[in-house]
Amino acid sequence: MIRLNVFIQPAAGNREAVLEAAKALTACSLADRGCVAYDVFASATRPDVLMICETWIDADALAAHSSSDHFKKYVGEMESLGTLKLEQFDF
Q1: Would the pTM of this model clear 0.85, i.e. be above it?
Q2: Where is 20: in which H helix or E strand?
Q3: Which of 6, 16, 50, 91 yields a CA-CA distance of 20 to 30 A from 22?
Q4: Closest CA to 80 of 32, 2, 26, 10
Q5: What CATH number does domain 2-90 carry, 3.30.70.100, 3.60.150.10, 3.30.300.30, 2.40.50.1020?
Q6: For every one of its 91 residues, what pLDDT tens digit does the chain have, with 9 covering 90 and above?
Q7: At 24, which helix (H) or strand (E)?
């Protein structure tokens, strides 16, 4: 399985727009084949940090997700509104 932690730091004034894009991405991604878990978290100590935590059954499922229209749309929106940092773990 593959776990991704995507840390998002919205630019000033963009937190709500980033959160809405992240929620929309989550709703779509939960229906993707091979998605084990997908959720959005807000930091309790840093209001300027959000995180998407996702788990995929395998690399093929993650690749299909990464090429999906909803991924391109919502990740593109988030990238235009802030900074994203990806951590990937295989287990």
Answers
A1: yes
A2: helix 15-29
A3: 91
A4: 10
A5: 3.30.70.100
A6: 999 999 999 999 999 999 999 999 999 999 999 999 999 999 999 989 999 999 999 999 999 999 999 999 999 999 999 999 999 999 9
A7: helix 15-29
